Protein backbone atom coordinates (compact mmCIF):
# COMPACT_ATOMS: atom_id res chain seq x y z
CA UNK A 1 0.00 0.00 0.00
CA UNK A 2 1.26 3.48 -0.88
CA UNK A 3 0.90 6.49 1.37
CA UNK A 4 0.59 10.11 0.24
CA UNK A 5 4.37 10.29 -0.21
CA UNK A 6 4.30 7.31 -2.54
CA UNK A 7 6.02 5.15 0.09
CA UNK A 8 4.96 1.63 0.85
CA UNK A 9 3.64 0.98 4.32
CA UNK A 10 1.90 -1.84 6.10
CA UNK A 11 0.73 -2.79 9.55
CA UNK A 12 0.51 -6.14 11.28
CA UNK A 13 -0.37 -6.66 14.93
CA UNK A 14 0.91 -9.72 16.76
CA UNK A 15 0.19 -10.60 20.38
CA UNK A 16 3.28 -11.60 22.35
CA UNK A 17 4.05 -12.67 25.92
CA UNK A 18 6.92 -10.70 27.41
CA UNK A 19 7.22 -13.21 30.21
CA UNK A 20 8.57 -15.71 27.65
CA UNK A 21 11.15 -13.52 25.87
CA UNK A 22 12.97 -10.22 26.40
CA UNK A 23 12.88 -9.11 22.78
CA UNK A 24 11.18 -9.83 19.47
CA UNK A 25 12.28 -9.10 15.92
CA UNK A 26 10.09 -7.79 13.12
CA UNK A 27 11.27 -8.92 9.68
CA UNK A 28 10.08 -7.26 6.43
CA UNK A 29 10.98 -8.21 2.86
CA UNK A 30 10.08 -5.97 -0.09
CA UNK A 31 11.37 -5.91 -3.65
CA UNK A 32 14.34 -8.09 -2.80
CA UNK A 33 15.30 -6.07 0.26
CA UNK A 34 15.11 -7.32 3.85
CA UNK A 35 14.61 -5.19 6.94
CA UNK A 36 14.93 -6.20 10.59
CA UNK A 37 13.79 -4.24 13.62
CA UNK A 38 14.05 -5.41 17.24
CA UNK A 39 11.74 -4.39 20.04
CA UNK A 40 12.64 -5.14 23.65
CA UNK A 41 10.58 -5.59 26.75
CA UNK A 42 12.16 -2.49 28.26
CA UNK A 43 11.37 -0.23 25.30
CA UNK A 44 7.83 -1.54 24.96
CA UNK A 45 6.79 -1.75 28.62
CA UNK A 46 9.00 0.69 30.51
CA UNK A 47 6.09 2.55 32.12
CA UNK A 48 4.40 -0.63 33.32
CA UNK A 49 7.28 -2.02 35.40
CA UNK A 50 6.74 -2.09 39.16
CA UNK A 51 9.18 -0.89 41.76
CA UNK A 52 9.90 -3.77 44.18
CA UNK A 53 9.15 -3.24 47.87
CA UNK A 54 11.87 -4.98 49.87
CA UNK A 55 11.91 -5.89 53.56
CA UNK A 56 14.78 -7.49 55.49
CA UNK A 57 14.41 -9.72 58.56
CA UNK A 58 17.48 -10.67 60.60
CA UNK A 59 17.79 -13.92 62.58
CA UNK A 60 16.20 -14.00 66.02
CA UNK A 61 18.37 -14.55 69.11
CA UNK A 62 16.73 -17.94 69.59
CA UNK A 63 17.66 -19.01 66.05
CA UNK A 64 21.23 -17.85 66.58
CA UNK A 65 21.60 -19.85 69.78
CA UNK A 66 20.18 -22.90 68.02
CA UNK A 67 22.68 -22.51 65.19
CA UNK A 68 19.83 -21.85 62.76
CA UNK A 69 20.59 -18.32 61.55
CA UNK A 70 18.31 -17.37 58.65
CA UNK A 71 18.15 -14.02 56.86
CA UNK A 72 14.87 -13.33 55.06
CA UNK A 73 14.32 -10.96 52.15
CA UNK A 74 10.63 -10.31 51.50
CA UNK A 75 9.84 -8.74 48.13
CA UNK A 76 6.48 -7.44 46.95
CA UNK A 77 6.31 -7.37 43.15
CA UNK A 78 4.65 -9.45 40.45
CA UNK A 79 6.54 -12.20 38.59
CA UNK A 80 9.67 -12.31 40.73
CA UNK A 81 12.28 -14.96 39.97
CA UNK A 82 14.68 -16.34 42.57
CA UNK A 83 17.63 -15.31 40.38
CA UNK A 84 16.67 -11.66 40.96
CA UNK A 85 17.33 -11.83 44.72
CA UNK A 86 20.80 -11.93 46.26
CA UNK A 87 22.50 -11.17 49.57
CA UNK A 88 25.33 -8.87 50.60
CA UNK A 89 27.26 -9.40 53.82
CA UNK A 90 29.41 -6.48 54.93
CA UNK A 91 28.57 -4.83 51.58
CA UNK A 92 30.08 -7.73 49.61
CA UNK A 93 27.82 -9.69 47.25
CA UNK A 94 27.66 -13.38 48.16
CA UNK A 95 26.94 -16.40 45.98
CA UNK A 96 24.45 -17.87 48.43
CA UNK A 97 21.37 -19.43 46.84
CA UNK A 98 18.21 -18.88 48.90
CA UNK A 99 15.19 -21.04 49.42
CA UNK A 100 12.27 -19.36 47.69
CA UNK A 101 8.58 -19.36 48.46
CA UNK A 102 5.43 -17.45 47.60
CA UNK A 103 3.59 -15.80 50.48
CA UNK A 104 0.02 -17.09 50.30
CA UNK A 105 -1.26 -14.43 52.70
CA UNK A 106 0.01 -11.36 50.81
CA UNK A 107 -0.55 -10.77 47.10
CA UNK A 108 2.56 -10.73 44.88
CA UNK A 109 4.88 -11.25 47.85
CA UNK A 110 7.87 -13.58 47.80
CA UNK A 111 10.34 -14.59 50.50
CA UNK A 112 13.96 -15.54 49.83
CA UNK A 113 15.62 -17.15 52.86
CA UNK A 114 19.40 -17.29 53.19
CA UNK A 115 21.14 -19.56 55.72
CA UNK A 116 24.19 -18.23 57.55
CA UNK A 117 26.57 -20.30 59.65
CA UNK A 118 27.56 -19.34 63.19
CA UNK A 119 31.11 -18.54 62.12
CA UNK A 120 29.83 -16.29 59.32
CA UNK A 121 27.43 -14.45 61.61
CA UNK A 122 30.17 -13.56 64.08
CA UNK A 123 31.90 -11.47 61.43
CA UNK A 124 28.82 -9.73 60.00
CA UNK A 125 28.26 -6.02 60.60
CA UNK A 126 25.95 -5.18 57.68
CA UNK A 127 23.29 -7.28 55.93
CA UNK A 128 21.77 -6.21 52.60
CA UNK A 129 18.97 -7.66 50.49
CA UNK A 130 19.54 -7.01 46.78
CA UNK A 131 16.76 -7.25 44.18
CA UNK A 132 17.42 -6.79 40.46
CA UNK A 133 15.05 -4.35 38.81
CA UNK A 134 14.04 -4.72 35.16
CA UNK A 135 15.59 -2.44 32.54
CA UNK A 136 18.22 -0.97 34.85
CA UNK A 137 21.56 -2.02 36.26
CA UNK A 138 20.78 -0.33 39.59
CA UNK A 139 19.16 -2.84 41.97
CA UNK A 140 16.79 -2.16 44.84
CA UNK A 141 18.61 -2.62 48.15
CA UNK A 142 17.64 -2.65 51.82
CA UNK A 143 20.37 -2.82 54.48
CA UNK A 144 20.51 -3.23 58.24
CA UNK A 145 23.46 -2.52 60.49
CA UNK A 146 24.21 -4.90 63.36
CA UNK A 147 25.22 -3.17 66.59
CA UNK A 148 27.83 -5.49 68.08
CA UNK A 149 27.75 -3.50 71.34
CA UNK A 150 24.01 -3.90 71.80
CA UNK A 151 22.81 -6.25 74.59
CA UNK A 152 20.50 -7.76 71.98
CA UNK A 153 23.48 -8.95 69.95
CA UNK A 154 24.34 -12.38 71.29
CA UNK A 155 26.85 -13.54 68.72
CA UNK A 156 29.47 -14.03 71.41
CA UNK A 157 27.19 -16.14 73.58
CA UNK A 158 27.57 -19.24 71.44
CA UNK A 159 30.63 -21.02 70.21
CA UNK A 160 31.06 -24.41 68.59
CA UNK A 161 34.00 -25.11 70.92
CA UNK A 162 32.17 -24.02 74.07
CA UNK A 163 32.63 -20.26 74.34
CA UNK A 164 34.13 -18.61 77.37
CA UNK A 165 30.95 -16.69 78.15
CA UNK A 166 28.82 -19.81 77.96
CA UNK A 167 31.27 -21.48 80.32
CA UNK A 168 30.95 -18.61 82.78
CA UNK A 169 27.16 -18.80 82.66
CA UNK A 170 27.25 -22.54 83.24
CA UNK A 171 29.63 -22.07 86.18
CA UNK A 172 27.30 -19.48 87.74
CA UNK A 173 24.36 -21.85 87.35
CA UNK A 174 26.31 -24.65 89.04
CA UNK A 175 27.29 -22.40 91.96
CA UNK A 176 23.69 -21.26 92.41
CA UNK A 177 22.45 -24.87 92.37
CA UNK A 178 25.00 -25.89 95.03
CA UNK A 179 24.18 -22.85 97.18
CA UNK A 180 20.44 -23.49 96.94
CA UNK A 181 20.94 -27.11 98.00
CA UNK A 182 23.08 -26.08 100.98
CA UNK A 183 20.51 -23.51 102.15
CA UNK A 184 17.70 -26.05 101.85
CA UNK A 185 19.63 -28.63 103.91
CA UNK A 186 20.49 -26.00 106.53
CA UNK A 187 16.83 -25.02 106.91
CA UNK A 188 15.76 -28.67 107.21
CA UNK A 189 18.40 -29.26 109.91
CA UNK A 190 17.35 -26.12 111.78
CA UNK A 191 13.69 -27.10 111.73
CA UNK A 192 14.50 -30.64 112.85
CA UNK A 193 16.67 -29.40 115.75
CA UNK A 194 13.94 -27.03 116.85
CA UNK A 195 11.38 -29.81 116.73
CA UNK A 196 13.58 -32.15 118.82
CA UNK A 197 14.21 -29.40 121.40
CA UNK A 198 10.49 -28.68 121.60
CA UNK A 199 9.70 -32.37 122.24
CA UNK A 200 12.36 -32.64 124.99
CA UNK A 201 11.11 -29.52 126.76
CA UNK A 202 7.55 -30.74 126.60
Automatic annotation (TrEMBL):
<keyword id="KW-0812">Transmembrane</keyword>
<dbReference type="InterPro" id="IPR036179">
    <property type="entry name" value="Ig-like_dom_sf"/>
</dbReference>
<keyword id="KW-0472">Membrane</keyword>
<dbReference type="InterPro" id="IPR013783">
    <property type="entry name" value="Ig-like_fold"/>
</dbReference>
<keyword id="KW-1133">Transmembrane helix</keyword>
<dbReference type="InterPro" id="IPR003006">
    <property type="entry name" value="Ig/MHC_CS"/>
</dbReference>
<feature type="transmembrane region" description="Helical">
    <location>
        <begin position="182"/>
        <end position="201"/>
    </location>
</feature>
<protein>
    <recommendedName>
        <fullName>Ig-like domain-containing protein</fullName>
    </recommendedName>
</protein>
Amino acid sequence: MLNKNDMYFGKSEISVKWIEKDFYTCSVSHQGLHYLQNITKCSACQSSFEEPVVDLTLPSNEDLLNGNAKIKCSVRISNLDVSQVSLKLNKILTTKIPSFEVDNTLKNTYTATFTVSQDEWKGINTVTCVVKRPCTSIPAEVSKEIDVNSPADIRNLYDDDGGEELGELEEINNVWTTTSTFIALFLVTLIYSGFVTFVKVK
